[in-house]
Predict the structure.
Amino acid sequence: MSFLTPLFLLGLAALAIPVLVHLTQRERKSVIAFPSLMFLKKIPYESVQKRRIRDWLLLALRLAALALIVAAFARPFLRGSDVAAAPGGARDIVVLLDRSYSMGYGDSWSRAQQVAAESIASATPADRISVVLFADNADVARRATPDRSRAVAEINAASPGPGATKFGPALKLAGSLLAESLLPRKEVIVVSDFQRSGWQPDDTLRLPGGTVITTAVVEGATGPSLALTPATLLRTRDAGQPERVTVTAGVLNRTAADAAGVPVQLEMDGRIVQTLAVNVAGGASASVTFSPVSIAASTTRATVRLGTDTPAGVAVQTGVAPAASAIDALARDNVFNFVITPSAPVPVTVVTQGSRADANLYLSRALAIGEAPRFETSLQSVDALAGDAASRTRLLILNDVAVPEAAAARLVTFVEGGGGLLIALGPRATWPALREAWLPAVIGPPVDRTRGAAAKLSGMDYGHAVFEPFRAPRSGDFSTARFYSYRGLKAAKDATVLARFDTGEPALVEKAVGRGRVVLFASTIDLSWNDLALKPVFLPFVHQLGRHLSGFREQPAYLTIGEVLDITAAEIAAGATSTAAAGSETGRTVLAPSGQRRDLSVNSESMASAGALELVEQGFYEVRGAGREAGPVIVAAANVSLAESNLDRMDPKELVAGVTGTGAAGSSGAQDVLPDEAQELAQRVWWYLLFAGILLLIAETVLAQRLSRATR
Amino acid sequence: MSVHQPIPGARFVDPAVLARIGNLEMVAKTVVDGLINGTHRSPFFGASVDFAEHRGYVAGDDIRRVDWRVYARTDKYYIKEFEADSNSNFSVLLDVSKSMSFGEKISKLDYAKTLAACLTYLANQQRDRVGLVTFDEQIVDHVPPSAKHLDVVLHTLDRARAEKPGHLVAPIRRLAEHFGRRGIIVVISDFYAEPEEVFDAVGLLRFRGNDVVLFHVLDPQEVDFSFVEPSSFEDLESGDQIPVVPAALAEQYRSLVAAHIEALTTRASQQQIDYMLLNTSQPLDYALFRFLSMRERMARTR
């Protein structure tokens, strides 16, 4: 027997109190003043009743109650081997059940459910069971329940999802659950197929001290394991012909056995377009290229599938993996979804003034080159800006144009609505003085550098999106361009200087206005004031400016589950004008692969308000804008992580060692002797002692009252 | 203890009621008037002289009665006139020790003060000179006997408080030297001292020819010891405490008190001292009547 707080045993000195009370209380109940004790003192002492204990039972009760209470405060417990013999106290069990899609391999999932249920079969009603389902993320399905049947029900109700195994978040969640636990024994049971890809050693990942980690490895049936790698698209465009796309799919053989004649079929919009057979050597990969297909005007949902189990022409849920596959036991990685979108051009309007259309020759040619994105350039006179021409474009370029007030007002509206504006300054460029503050810089008089050394560009902000491609060495030299004249600029406080001349004066200044951007270039985009258009950096520079100002982001043909779809960028890439994109943000509807429809309003979720959508299901998501000015329909393909299809297993000991730092694996990693506090907490002897003490005090009260009545 | 009988002609007066009156003169008058109406005879016989006034010398006057001090101041002869010298000195020696403050309904001191006032009033009515000495362990107040000191005595009695521990012998020894002239000395006390000590002290008064009367004032609880609950008993004077279970020692206590009273009675008789035990539960006039009757009987026998 040991005590957690032995100092409380000093309280046993209180046992003297009832004895003293017995000896003194009855005689000293009251003090009577008496004239003289002369006669009383003459009476022999024996006749004055000695202080003696008469109520032995009462005294014994009081002493026992006090002793029990003092002992309770000292927190006694049985140490060491006694504990081992005893049940050891209540446990806080956290079951981590891997629900990644690799658990759907054969009968792995049913066996994982069985193992998880068995692992908590020994739980007593005093134990608390938490069930955590994890893949990419970890969710608490049932928290600290004493009811084992509920925990088992949660386990049985779960099913493997499309996510990939990641042990880190799950172990962190288990650690936080156990850190809040007051129970003496803590246990984590990990039920998984322990794929190596799911474990990233993390020094910050530690479970609370004394936590026992039990690992249950669920091994699926052995057999072939094939997976599709991401398909590549090769776009070709012949003049006067629609764009054609050649799809090349890769097949990966995870097993040592060769796979011969594996059927690979390409489906487009639910129709089987072509089926090919491929031979894949063991542990190797092979690619298969389908015949080029012409792309229709709209977005095409394409799926590459291993096997031919889906009947042709039947597409209940396009892109979703079938429940079982003849190819191998793991179905989800036998499907690869992607979206073929006709490359929508970014509408660019170059504003000219009078007969100086030739001045934009270099600019127009530069914009005409390139596929991602493809800029569709149109020329517009500055006078026509007063119409609604601006609403049909995403980028306006003013090359040395004198802007009247009416056009300036239109430009302001255009930019604040989300459009991009590039103003190149030449000798004729002017801007209404009333709206000068709106520009990123105050436009000064021309600076003549025709005599002496011409000005050069230096001090580029390589961290900015415009110059980011030129960051690496030999990625483009702007210093070779000579600037013979330029307009002096004085940057506004809220503007960003992206490049300067070698004199330190701003050369390129940017400012975000409303939802759009304005960039002011201090010189012309032709050969009148500089020879930048003749330099190799001109083309990528103009393209980067165009991409940046138009808000274009290249949209991938597919995404992986867990990634976030940028809806706004996708709409722009699909050819939405600034007006349409702005209108769509007021409300969107998402149709998930499972058929679930969800409205994304601005106020509904933070993710939605930012125009983003997290992909959690395998298949095709469809996003539609609401309203009259709705943008194009966005279709995004979501695929499972290819890493999850790699069933190579890690040694569970590695995970245990990484979390506990001991290297002891499995249940042997249990702490043999619990700390004193845990042992004491588990046994709770103090509670029984305190209860007994209180009972004795009640009995003492009743007895004392009866004795008191009897003496009266 | 004793069961008093209705006294013919005497009014029943509860001492507790009297104590609440406060004015001792009125109390004494109330008690004594009723008493005298029943007794007809006073037992006090005075034989002393007291200054009354000066008058001019006339031929034939005894020159021993010329006041030579006045002559020295005025250069004239004055004769000192004295009051009738048939009355005696009547002095009350009142114990005001702390133990006298005890009492359930009326304290022993209040009872004793009323008694002293009554006796003084009676004596004054007899034309005796009245005086008072209050004492605890030493003399507290001293009013010399005089025919005109009734008010002073009563006022002094009224002021008397039982505050200090008492000692019977030392003050009485000092007083014995003081009482040069024979008279009647009444000692009122609870006599918490051994009988030998008591009579060693009062014997000195007696030996000087004084007529000594002892009034032993006790509270009923001191006599009966009717306490029930075991308690700590605290000596009022010394502050000592002893735990006492009354049921176990009441009998022995009562016998000790009875023995003490018996010893006092015996020694008083031996020394021809009047001794009277007074219980504060008894009416004062009843106590006085008993005492005066006893004095009368004894006067006849002496």
Summary: The longest strand of chain B covers residues 139-146. The longest helix of chain B spans residues 246-270. The interface with chain A takes residues 99-100, 102, 108, 190, 192, 219, 222, 227, 229-238, 240-245, 248-249, 252-253, 256-257, 260 of chain B (CB under 8 Å).
